Every structure is written in structure tokens, then in C-alpha cells.
């Protein structure tokens, strides 16, 4: 079934109405008819199965059939922060990161970032990434669509760090030195409902100065296993590790 995201919390109603882009997708792309069913996902992580009851010139009317069962979101909210990489790598990070449960994405100009965008290009890219996140959320049956924000300066990025409960920094030099425990310990000791920021460098990695600055602000510096991962692979490794730790093992003690 198709999934449509609504920017409002769930309220029990006799009927739900879709207009605009969802209307166009249902009527023109999917060519649905009354009695067809879809998922409606609300901003408070409630999702329902709804049946189309009528289609007018401008609206699709639906009735609730039942609530979707099961939790689809990670128990803690992980924001992936990527130093701007080259090419279309952010597209991949957002698409696959959404499938793996990321709560949000931040892009920032790291010291080794080669990419330089003016405001117009940055806004256009942010809109493109937001669309990629929505499509991936629909495909993965997420209950929320991750937010995407592309920052213009590193100072904007550092100002946001204090708003998170825990900050993790993926650093290849830690992996080279054989550090293997910090990530596992950080994930195990993250209680549910936390806001976690996971930071990744671009192709050239994070500089020593950047890592020292983040460490001074309380970030946990982590190696991601014994191999050196690409900038677009590392976030997926961390999200997969979090899913395994929290959802498959069910270990999250909050200490």
C-alpha cells in the first residue's frame, strides 16, 4: 500500500481529506478508486490504514480502517551530520539513511570539504534532498519523514551541537589506532528518547583541530571497526549498528 505523510498530529475523525500532491498522486499516478486503501502517517508517529470513500475534482476522502501496528522508528533520534562531500553522495546518504532509521540530516562545510554552494544552489539541493527523504520514508514505511538542513557555515553547525543529548564523532584515526569500543558503549548507554548527533567528515575526513574541538565539547570519538569506510558508507554503518543494538538485541540501558 502507498503511504502518505500528513504534517499534523493524529485525531480520530469520521473522514480524512487529501488534497494537493497526495491527491494528484492517488488520482493521476496510482489511478486509485473508492475502496482502495492507503497508509496515512501523521506527525506524531501514528499511522493508520485508510480506505478511499470518494474522489472529487479536488479531494480524496478516506475513512479510517485500523491503526498500523508496531513501532517503525528507532527508540532514540539520530541526526546524521555530514561534512559536505563531492557529487551526489549526499543523495545516497539521505536515501539509505532514511531507510535505516535516521531522524534528520545536517550538512555542513567541513575544513576539507571541496564543495562550495551559494544560497540559491544550497536551497535547491536541500529541496531535492527533502524529496529524496520523503520518497525513501514512503518506501521504508517510516512513521516520520526525516528533516534535511544544509548549513552555510561551520559556526552554524557548532552552535547546534549543545541541543543534543549525545554527540558521536566518527574518526578514522581512532579506527587506525585500534579503538573499537566507544561506539558500542555509547549506543548501549543511550536511553530511549535521546537526541543523538552523529558527525562524519567528507572524503578528506575531519581534521585534528575539528576533532579536538568536538571532543572539548563532550563528543565521543568513535572508530567504526578496523576498516576505513567511505564518507557515504560510514553513516550507514552507524545506523545499522544502532538498529542491531537497540532493535534486535534490545539493549539500551540509559546509563
UniProtKB/TrEMBL annotation:
Its EC number is 2.1.1.193. It catalyses: uridine(1498) in 16S rRNA + S-adenosyl-L-methionine = N(3)-methyluridine(1498) in 16S rRNA + S-adenosyl-L-homocysteine + H(+). It comes from Enterococcus thailandicus. Belongs to the RNA methyltransferase RsmE family. This is Ribosomal RNA small subunit methyltransferase E. The lineage of its organism: Bacteria, Bacillati, Bacillota, Bacilli, Lactobacillales. Keywords: Cytoplasm, Methyltransferase, rRNA processing, S-adenosyl-L-methionine, Transferase. One of its GO terms (molecular function) is rRNA (uridine-N3-)-methyltransferase activity. The keyword S-adenosyl-L-methionine applies.
